[in-house]
Design a protein that fits this description.
This protein is an alpha/beta fold. The chain is built from ten helices and 13 strands.
Length: 295
């Protein structure tokens, strides 16, 4: 068995290098690949005040890992009890469960176990003892910088989708579950799908041309608003993502939608009345329908 281990938030090019190395080695040896990851993000447990927004929620991350050809994924619940596990014990537990364990692939600076005391040197020693190979996959560099979730998160936060896409090796998307909203969009003549986005990183507030994918269905074009909806008296101040899909009439409640941001139309703004807001939405939809695909 060949293990690729990591948090894998974003499943960016650096993460893909780790997973694809395990896949390639497993194919050569006629073995099986297992991606091992954690939920929630360890920082949310260990240092919640410093926890970043995610590039991918766990369901989104698992979908992206499977798209790489991985058939088996182990999601380890991350809590303080697990975080206290000595690093050698963690590897021994994996080795006992993954018989025969042939290889562990990780990023070149990966650390693990209690106090992050585990590293590649420990993996190498345990590999000689337990009979598996240790592979530390080098960092991936794009445009002269190391690919990391932090750099990608900063790009998305600033609205630089082109840079995010280069470092991810795919378009940046948000996977959200459609939930009940205030139904104001339907009242204004533009029904919206309100997405619970599982703490994923939002781009800047504003109105965007988007595409939405549901399962394997053909993409649906639309217009999305990200922000706090300042025109509404009942607005909570919480940032929300809501999407109006063109020429769609159906029930999306409970469905997962993957949102692709195509073009930025305008910043979010406060309008003097709901009628003024509706007039602007008419303009937004008209402009979005006319816009071409691409950034």
């Amino acid at each position: 068995m060949f293990l690729a281990i990591g948090v894998f938030d974003g499943v960016h090019l650096g993460h893909r290098a780790v997973i694809e190395r395990a896949l390639a080695d497993a194919r050569t040896a006629g073995g099986s690949t297992v991606a091992v990851t954690f939920d929630p993000h360890p920082v949310r447990v260990l240092r919640p005040e410093k926890a970043p927004h995610l590039l991918t929620s766990t369901p989104h991350k698992l979908r992206l890992i499977r798209d790489l050809g991985v058939q088996h994924i182990l999601v380890i619940p991350f809590n303080r009890e697990f975080a206290a596990t000595p690093p050698a014990e963690f590897i021994r537990q994996l080795a006992a469960a993954a018989r025969p364990l042939r290889e562990i692939c990780v990023g070149h600076q990966w650390s693990f176990g209690r106090n992050r005391a585990g590293n590649l040197e420990l993996l190498d020693r345990l590999g000689h003892e337990l009979g598996f190979d240790e592979v530390g996959v080098p960092a991936v560099e794009i445009d002269g910088r190391i690919v990391s979730s932090t750099v990608i998160r900063q790009a998305v936060e600033s609205g630089d989708f082109a840079t995010a896409a280069r470092l991810l090796g795919r378009e940046y998307t948000i996977l959200g579950t459609v939930v009940e909203g205030l139904h104001l969009g339907r009242t204004l003549g533009f029904p919206t799908a309100n997405l619970a986005a599982h703490n994923e990183q939002f781009p800047p507030n504003g109105v965007y041309v988007v595409e939405a994918r549901r399962n394997g269905d053909a993409p649906l074009r639309g217009v999305a608003n990200i922000g706090v909806r300042p025109t509404l008296a009942q607005a909570s101040g919480e940032r929300v993502l809501e999407v109006h899909l063109f020429d769609f009439d159906g029930d999306l409640y409970g469905s997962d939608l993957e949102i692709i941001f195509r073009n930025f139309l305008r910043p979010e703004q406060k309008f003097p009345s709901l009628e003024a807001l509706r007039a602007q939405i008419v303009c937004d939809v008209e402009q979005a329908r006319k816009s071409g695909v691409g950034f």
